[in-house]
Amino acid sequence: MNGAKRALGGALVLATAGACLLGGAGSAAARTHGPTAGSQAEADQHGNSGGGHISSTVHITYTQRGGALGGSGGRAAVADWDPPGCWYAPEYDPEQFEESRQRLYFAAVHDPGANDIVRDISSENQGYAKDEYHKKDKGKGMYWTAQYRDDATIEQMMECDRPPFWAENGTAPDVPHAISPEILAGLAYERMKVPSLKAKLAPAAASKVNLPTWVWLDKADVEPVSVTASLDVGGFHMEATTTATPTGMKVEPGTEDAHVIPGGGNCPVADGAIGEPFAAGKADRTPPCGVTYTRSSGQGTYRMSAAVNWETRWTGTGGAGGDLPDGTYGQTRDVRVEEIQAVNR
Fold it and tell me: Has this prediction a pTM greater than 0.85?
């Protein structure tokens, strides 16, 4: 059978046309339960191990506050982001691991396309048997296996070609790609959704030439969005929280015949909001965030853009933390600009 060879859990598995032998050991599944904007939502990421079976027992739970986890009401707070493609995580106790290795060997022996890896699997199993699959250490540790994103490339999977290994509970093993708060933060970042915010305008119907148009977002709109990714298995716990916080809004009027307020069109967050709502008695004031058009749009409109800047950081188990790529997302508005009508008497 023609195909590309890749290392999954130490055994070479042949993959063809997106399908893998030995029970589909190269795909993963993810579920999202009830995503709701502004509320808590959870999702389980089922990493895919090289243990030769379809489903994995490794569950990464995601919880989002603010925005929408996996929903259509928000936009990913990531522009060009390449999340981790593979990692190692604790999965099996001794008895479970022995059973999974036996099933892997059985599947390879009975698959004509896997004849060339039977010897490799047998050799690995003999090595595990020398330690009696750590049965005497039951409850003290677990076997760690490679886990893969559902859309990981072959190259990304090849980065985790180490055979399953034993590690004691309590600390992450000193192995490249072993699950870490930073990896969890990256996975949480991928899941994050920020609300697609629509700036408010005054006048709402039509702007007037040489009179400022007020632009703002209320405090309720300008709230941080966070996603926590946590892993609990056996005696192992790890988590990381990724948080995106609005820092300002970039306003572009859609025509050169306009002036933005402030200059440059960068409206910062102030007192928990961006800009200021228009109200009666403010007609003679200059808005902290807005646009003054100097020419009518005629029979058409100007395409104004208001994009919110999101600053992203993460914190995790053991005091770890850092920055992740920031994002800028917003919406465009068609703004009609009219001349001020003068009445001659």
Answer: no
